[in-house]
Amino acid sequence: MYEIEYIDIEKNKEYEDIIRETIKKCFENEKIENSKLYICITITNNENIQKMNKKYRNIDKKTDVLSFPMFEKEEIPKAVESQNEDILGDIVISIPQVILQAEEYGHSIKRELAYMIVHGFYHLMGYDHIEEEDKNKMRKKEEEVLGTIAQRK
Question: CB neighbours (10 Å) of residue 81?
């Protein structure tokens, strides 16, 4: 379902527990828990995510989360049905940015990290937030998952 890589951030069991719970809820919400799809999640710092943001998006600044989908939205049903193991995509998260945003928004690091994972997941599922209508659909999906995660605050 997922694998975690750490780049210039110490391994952290609490982060791993949050990731496991959140990914499980995402897969259940989309009814793909029996698929052979998995996600690569990279936990890193601001410097590394800024380099990736510049390299892949030509935006030279830090960000909280980056998503790299492997499928177009219309290809996902076929990938879900496939009996072959395949990667849904990659999610890269800056832990210092998660901590900063949790403080800014007045909620827990757990809630902010869970949100980054859910947000990244729905980008991998083909959702975006450029147009208002699409943004509303994506936010609804995100809230469905976040509402099922224990101790959101």
Answer: 10
Question: Position of tokens 């510049």?
Answer: 54
Cβ neighbours of residue 90 closer than 8 Å, sequence gap 6 or more: 39, 40, 41, 42, 66, 67, 68
Per-residue pLDDT tens over the stretch 11-57: 999 999 999 999 999 999 999 999 999 999 999 999 999 999 999 99
Which tokens sit at 55? 């390299």
Give the separation between CA 58 and CA 139, rounded to whole angstroms.
Answer: 26
Global pTM value: 0.94
What structural domains and CATH numbers belong to the chain? 2-146 (3.40.390.30)
Q: Let me know: does 49 contact 7? Beta carbons within 8 Å.
A: no
